[in-house]
Amino acid sequence: MDYVIAFFVGGAICAVVQILLDNTKLMPGRVMVILVCTGALLGAIGIYEPFAKWAGAGAGVPLTGFGNILFKGVKEAVDKEGFIGIFKGGFTSSAVGISAALIFSYIASWFFNAKMKS
User: Fold this and answer.
1) Domain layout of the chain by residue ranges
2) Which of 39, 59, 77, 93 would bridge with 64, disulfide CB 3.0–4.6 Å?
3) So where does this one cross the membrane (predicted)?
4) 4/55 Cα distance (integer angstroms)
């Protein structure tokens, strides 16, 4: 049942994003920023963590989950190190995910030849 919940929650988030892209003049980059900020905001007010526990990967994989991870990292670093944690926390909490994305995208570039849209 966990897989089904994760599938539907992740699909719902993607459907909302697609509706935003199709029915507004928002550019994809701005929609991604909205998702990250929404995840951080929901994490700050304490809603995202219980939601992520219920939804599993359906809430953790989209960009809202990335925003929540950034918020949690900054919060922990500020509690531990003070003001400097504002600058360090997001990097340390998301470093593994960002590194994995860079490494796997580099490996994928060996097999696929990206082209510009014309």
Assistant:
1) 2-111
2) 39
3) 6-24, 31-48, 91-112
4) 9
